[in-house]
Amino acid sequence: MDEITATPLLFSSLALDAKILRAIEETGYTQPTPIQAQAIPHVIAGSDLMAMAQTGTGKTAAFTLPMLQRLLPHASSSASPARHPIRALILAPTRELAIQVHANVVTYSKHVPLRTAVVYGGTDIKAQKPILMNGVEILVATPGRLLDHVESRNLQLNQVQVLILDEADRMLDMGFMPDLKRIVALLPKQRQTLLFSATFSEEIKKLAQEFLTNPVTVETARRNAAGENIKQSVCMVGHQDKFHALVEIIRSRNVKQVLVFTRTKLSAAHVAKQLERAGIPADAIHGDKTQRERIEALDAFKAGTIQALTATDVAARGLDIDQLPLVINYELPTHAEDYVHRIGRTGRAGASGEAVSLVDGDEERRLVEIEKLLNRSFPREAAIVPSGYQKPLKPAPVRGHSRAAPAEDWFSKPYEASVLAQPVEEKRIAPPSHKPQPQVAALFKLKR
Ligand code: AMP
To answer: Which atom of ligand 1 is nearest to the CA of 55?
Structure first.
């Protein structure tokens, strides 16, 4: 990442213990990212912190490394659960992010005798109990499941010294504020609180006022700026041709992995199924899948067994896939800020990436919102749809018949795509307030 190379610091200059430095070295990082360089000294010094960091900037290590440093005096190899109270609590909005953060904590703490665990919903709560009863110093949790454990008296939070709110903006979006308030009320008043968010909205500032004390603010990227190492493009396409355009993009890029975003669970499932039929191994992750199914799909994607993973915004939070070359927005998100999160799945840690958005006439308004947020405009390119699959705007009359040709004539081989119905959105539905413009479709008639 440009940002990484622009930081001349070394990890060894950051007052981190040799055991932590060894783990960093083994991970292969050479230099701290800007968010790490800025945040780590303040956290080690004990300040509360409000950090604005986009996904992919190295934010997890930015809070985990100094948190480990602060907990070092309590590291203990004792078997007694009493010697391992929860001292650091990391809250994350989704199970995927919680799992990801926990994996990072495990990596960075491997030479330090501090115990860590992760708890999230959608899995058997009983299985998580013995791990907690055994004692852990660092707990990563989604808010709802944490409260379930509190109610079941599986854990105590009265010795927490460090509270970390990861992707706080998303936690608010997902309606976790009441849960957060309940959790914070259970923590000691005297503690360190770190808040990480991709954006600093008014709500986030209010949350910071409520939960943080004299925080230091660090900000590494331009407000809502999307990664500059990501090539972004917009392809206009009629709704009926979207799927064919998607297949064409995947085939033409010849990439091993592509993450395809949809707005709805239904659409994620449907597109994955259609891709499979088109000969592109695919699976979907969305809120209706069990945790196990989601993990299996993600593992298959990471291992390269499936080429395409379709996902909704909520399900994709926290996904960290090394070297993901391509993200496609099959449908633009309802919230412009989600565009930044989506494309941030590619181009991570300095790698270059590509993000293509397929936009139909009904989505123009969403595109304009994204452009406003990013303060840039995208040239509207015409999507390439293999000519055999273009659906005529007006059905061609069948010789000798006055009625239109049946739809199957336009949509049969080889993808067997069917028109994807506009399904109901998964969350936070905001129906477009503008009227679709039928004549816009004519502009998307595609040439090869
Ligand atoms: P995050 O923003 O925490 O999700 O991190 C994004 C990616 O950057 C992850 O794959 C990390 O392993 C990687 N990463 C974190 N810190 C560094 C670093 N200092 N140098 C190179 N890669 C890093």
So the answer is: 2
**Domain annotation covers residue 100:** yes
Q: Is 29 in the pocket of ligand 1 (CB under 6 A)?
A: yes
Counted domains in the chain: 2
- Ligand 1 centre to CA of 380 (Å) is 33
DSSP state of 196: E
Answer whether 4's CB lies under 8 Å from 31's CB. Answer: yes
**In contact, 66 and 17? CB cutoff 8 Å:** no
Give me Rg for the CA atoms of the chain.
24
Tell me the CA–centroid distance for residue 62 and ligand 1, in Å.
9
Residue 200 lies in a domain: yes
Interhelix angle 291-303/95-108, rounded to 10 degrees, is 60
Residue 62 lies in a domain: yes
Tens-digit pLDDT profile for residues 391-406: 444 433 333 333 333 3
Q: Residue 206 falls within a domain, yes or no?
A: yes
Give tens-digit pLDDT for 148-194. Answer: 999 999 999 999 999 999 999 889 888 899 999 999 999 999 999 99
For residues 176 and 185, give the distance between their C-alpha atoms in angstroms, rounded to a whole number: 14
Which pTM was predicted? 0.60
pLDDT digits (tens, 9 = 90+) for 47-74: 999 998 877 788 999 999 999 999 999 9
The enclosing domain of 253 has a CATH number of 3.40.50.300
139 and 170 co-located in one domain:
yes
Determine the residue of 27, 67, 229, 324 to mutate for testing ligand 1's pocket, defined as the one with the most ligand atoms within 8 A of the Cβ atom: 27
Q: Is the CB of 128 under 6 A from ligand 1?
A: no
Q: Which residue has the tokens 């650091």?
A: 88
**Co-location of 215 and 321 in the same domain:** no
Does the CB atom of residue 57 touch ligand 1 within 6 A? yes
Q: Nearest Cα to 263, choosing from 339, 160, 199, 196? A: 339
